[in-house]
Amino acid sequence: MLRVCVCVSGGGTNLQAIMDAIDAGKITNAEIVQVISNNKNAYALERARNKGIAATAVSPKDFADRALFNEAFLACLDETKPDLIVLAGFLVVLPPMMIEKYEGRIINIHPSLIPSFCGKGFYGLKVHEAALARGVKITGATVHYVDAGTDTGPIILQKAVEVQPDDTPEILQKRVMEQAEWQILPQAIDMIANKKGVS
Q1: Residue 9, CA distances (Å) to 26, 39, 102, 198 in order
Q2: Total-model pTM
Q3: Strands (E), 132-189
Q4: Which end of the chain has less neighbouring CB within 10 Å, N or C?
Q5: 103-114 pLDDT per residue, tens
Q6: Which of 13, 190, 187, 9 lies closest to 94, judged by CA?
Q7: What is the spatial order of strands in the sheet that 55-57 belongs to?
């Protein structure tokens, strides 16, 4: 059984998609053992607790500096003994020591078709604002392994989503979540849990 730790910063819609996929049998051989957020008020923590999943907040605001926060965050992760760490809307730059320690065991969902609209500064609505400003007709989402760069790790899955003429960033964000993110993130976890075509 793959031990999954999900890291989130906000509402946890991708977390919900993972939990729903486990319930529906779309993800097999995996369980969420812990949800960690950098935001004490993240609704994702409540979603996890409602499912009986351990949920912890490790907030940078509670530490004198970033190094102490990174240390506490890594200690919280280590306690969980995860086989896979899923960044599901986690707006914290991972410390290099964590990426090194869990190399090949961290995946992230990004709301564009990498290499478009990714890297430093591209997160949340900013991605969709940039896509609309550029006038692209197709956008989507990408699940990739996390490495030392920003959105530069090996790609696991991608799914395209059409951009409509009257889209706002908010409308496009919702469509990308529903049509791409909530589908390919659970799919990638299932592939990893069952060693289907991923390294």
Answers
A1: 25, 6, 20, 27
A2: 0.94
A3: 138-145, 155-162
A4: C
A5: 999 999 999 999
A6: 9
A7: 55-57, 30-37, 2-8, 84-87, 106-110, 138-145, 155-162
